[in-house]
Amino acid sequence: MGTYEIAPEQALESAIRFIKEGRVQGIKLEGGLDMAPTIARITRAGIPVLAHVGLTPQRQNALGGFRVQGKSTAGALKVLQDALAVQEAGAFAVVLEAVPADVATLITRKLRIPTIGIGAGNGCSGQVLVQVDMTGNFPPGRFLPKFVKKYGDVWGESLRAIEAYRTDVKSRAYPAVEHTYPMPASELSEFERLIGEEKQKP
């Protein structure tokens, strides 16, 4: 946020910097009809743009929070209008976020470019899900959107491993002999003699 909203020229400058310094092959930005001139400016410069309409997280305060978009006829028409605008501006694909599945399916049919759904049903051309969410790499009690499916429990497994490590360290079970580097006994004896730590004979 703040790298493209002021003007299309600012957005193009940011995109060029991302390409040159970040060595990326394209950029993504949020916004529909209002961002179409910006997308057109960037794509005319030869930089691919992935658009993002529906729920736009960077603008969620203006949308009344993280709310489903396109639930009414007027809302669905607005999402379609945004998707068509970014397509005409040159976006190579568009993310549809938090849009009713039926609406996303119909919008996908109306576009020439692919749609990538997140919380928009399986009628989109493809899907995206945040890795932290899908792998369960977050503490218990965190709010999750309805569309998130946990495919793993990285947090739980990490916690189990950390607790086991702590137990082993406290009991001195770790590091064990197999985790250490040996020294020839004669060298160790000489080292002990030199520092006055010779083993006391019984």
What are the salient characteristics of this protein?
transferase, 2 domains, Pyrv_kinase-like_dom_sf, alpha/beta, 202 residues, 5-stranded parallel β-sheet, elongated, 3-methyl-2-oxobutanoate hydroxymethyltransferase activity, TIM Barrel, 10% strand, EC 2.1.2.11, 7 helices, 3-methyl-2-oxobutanoate hydroxymethyltransferase, 40% helix
Please tell me about this protein's structure.
- By secondary structure, the chain is α/β, with parallel strands linked by helices.
- It has 2 domains: 8-128, Alpha-Beta Barrel (TIM Barrel); 130-202, no CATH class.
- Helices cover 40% and strands 10% of the residues.
- The chain has helices at 8-21, 36-44, 73-88, 101-110, 131-134, 154-170, 185-194; strands spanning 27-30, 49-54, 93-97, 115-118, 126-127.
- A 5-stranded parallel sheet has the order 1-2-3-4-5.
- The chain is elongated.
- It starts with 7 loop residues before the first helix and ends in an 8-residue tail after the last helix.
- The model has no long low-confidence stretch (mean pLDDT 92).
